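Fold this sequence, please.
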Amino acid sequence: MTKEDQALVNFRRLITGKPLRSEEASHEKLPKWKALSIFSSDALSSVGYGPEQIIVTLAVPGLLIYGYFSYATLAVIALLTIVTLSYAQVARANPGGGGSYSIALHNLGELPALVAAAALVADYVLTVAVSISSGTEALVSAFPLLIGWEVTLDLIVLFVILTLINLRGVRESSNVFVWPTYFFILGIICMILAGLYNSFTGTSPIVPAESLERQQADWVVILLALRAFSNGCSSMTGIEAISNGVPMFREPSVNNAIRTTYIMSSLLAVMIAGISFLFLHYHLVPVENVTMLSQLAEQVFGRGWAYYYIQLTTMLILYLAANTAYNGLPPLLSIMARDSYVPRYLGERGERLGYSKGIVFLSLISAALIIVFQGNVEHLISLYAIGVFLSFTIAQSSLVVKWIREKSSGWISRTILNSFGACVTGIVVVVIATTKFSHGAWIVLIFIPSMIFIFKAIHRHYKTTAEQLRISTADFAEHLEIQNPKNLIIVPVSGITKIVAASIRYSKAMGGDVIALYIYTDEEEREKFEEKWNSLNIDVSLRLLYSPYRSIVQPILAYVNEIEMHRSIYHYITIVIPEFETAKWWHRILHNQTGWILRTLLILRENVIVSTLPYHLKK
């Protein structure tokens, strides 16, 4: 489309109110197969680091606790089943989106809702940081020459790929992200099947003895096993994304969202179980700069094309898993902006109907995390999961209140299911907070109350602002009735120039008393200016102020203060600041910024109106 055609389309939209084609496409609803790829990439990609993080915790030198890996994995899969069954009800109970925040606000009140919102913000930001960092680790495992460039690669992927594509709109991002997800699922399933075939047909034991070794449980072993389970719970982050994005599904949106949740969780459980079994079969342990999924792919396929297929699709799915946060956090922020808990501009859609400001906000915070933690997945994982499980617990508790209050058909079974889910996820929150407290969980436990404080401060500001601006119809009419309104217009001048002439002409057009204000530093200068001014014979009063310290701004401010003390004479005091605009941007640095400084200081005055009159210079 040429620029002329684009301009014509824009004009058509301006006249008719119809959106552009690109905007219409950006607002299209998603079919299940495409929604699965967008909303499940976070959860499914977690098999690239979730099972590994369990072994990282258990592979402690001098301790024989590797055998507890299978128990931790089974506990994670059981918890996944409970969370899926109970959390699917959130989509049914809250079809408008917003997830645990919205449903808690309607059923539990403000504070639990803000806790859920803060937890989700932490989870979404960490999703981006962890997913991108894990994707880079997969890339570095296949290509060791990239060691040392991890943070740079993370930031390139974050800003050049994810941010820009999401700013293009929903349709564009879905078209880009759909196929890597399915390529990854195909690769992992094929690797699991090939690994199972090798393990059952080979000569080595299906599960070697060293993979089952575990010493007797004591407090140290129990603590490490619980911490391993906590790290494994990172595999369940992303399940909440579907309930947050129900409005993006095609009708019937609720049923489609619930089916997508079940399909996603089933695939995730199969992949966690298969990969964990193969880790045990090959007795894999952590190796520096090599992911365990990379080790597993090399054991199953060798260092051939299939190995690189697994590594590249894992890298892509991990990078694109961060996109789940881009589909979850900006809409959540828009809902909170509507409720006045975050800046309202975060609820505004861009020209492609995406929440562009929320997208940029997410990218900047995630970039800060990546830089601070140097893209280290093990360190970032320590912050992970507590936020999402806290939001799980609040969501389930909200549903229990909702079912008991409404007593609709099947409310007893739903109440039992969600009560059990809330108890289990609540226990998991305590376990994660306790076992990972010294490893970074304390940061999240400080972050969440801090965010709640910020949310409430923003809400209080908007509420106070609304109360101060509120006016009745009678009061509005009364405010318009002013007997003989008088306006004093002050024009600071620095010489006899075209811009001064234009400023005085504009000031006289407004009506009222006009005063030209000139600041001088010596008597000779004053006499010359006053003589030249009087020769013009214009009907404008001239006020001369002496500045012994060669300051221009301070005498003007002092004069305005003096005028304000006699405010009863004038209803309005207007300062017209003459200012010329240079033809090129770099010309601006060749001139002083007195006009900008004066405008900045005067605009803070309660009873003063500041107007800038620009005079555009030619090249």
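Strands lie at 487-493, 513-520, 541-546, 572-581, 608-616. The longest strand covers residues 572-581.
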